[in-house]
Design a protein that fits this description.
5-stranded antiparallel beta sheet, 160 residues, globular, 2 domains, alpha+beta
Length: 160
């Protein structure tokens, strides 16, 4: 009888350990999937247009004294670029950065030249892991039409 109880305890222990490893592996896999899908995405909405997710052609890295993020969307023909201080801390900024947006090779806005009001909010920036997240909001005069417009969006970027 004692041998049967020990066998049951050993079997239950093996099953429990197996379940623990499976659960841990699943959580790690889910965390990896979240990181893989969350990084290197820029989302932007202009006025009441549909939100565009820029992730088809993506590059991000520090060049000289700027962190440059560039992304385009093949479906819309649009692109967006950010020029940010690579050491920027979390917080909200109205100067010290540039955002530009174009469609089919035509510049729609650049915050340096035609923004009447722009805000960049850095919500996370891990300079050792080269990961930055934030939001932006830009009021601008459209280069193509002269109309007053508004763009807003978010980014979650892993850079070199």
């Amino acid at each position: 009888m004692k041998t049967k109880n020990n066998l049951i305890k050993i079997t239950l222990s093996i099953l429990l350990i197996g379940f623990m490893f499976t659960a841990c592996k699943k959580e790690e896999d889910e965390a990896d999937n979240v990181d893989a899908t969350a990084n290197n995405i820029v989302k932007m909405k202009v006025d009441n247009d549909a939100e565009i997710v820029y992730k088809d052609n993506f590059s991000a890295g520090v060049l000289g004294d700027k962190l440059i993020i560039g992304a385009s969307d093949n479906a819309s023909g649009g692109d967006v670029e950010f020029f940010i201080d690579p050491d920027i801390a979390t917080g909200t900024y109205s100067t010290g950065f540039s955002i530009s947006h174009g469609v089919n090779g035509q510049a729609v806005f650049t915050t340096i030249t035609n923004s009447t009001s722009s805000t960049l909010t850095i919500t996370k920036h891990d300079t050792s892991a080269n990961h930055i997240e934030g939001t932006f909001s830009v009021d601008f005069n459209d280069n193509n039409t002269g109309a007053s417009r508004h763009a807003e969006g978010s980014f979650n970027v892993k850079y070199l």
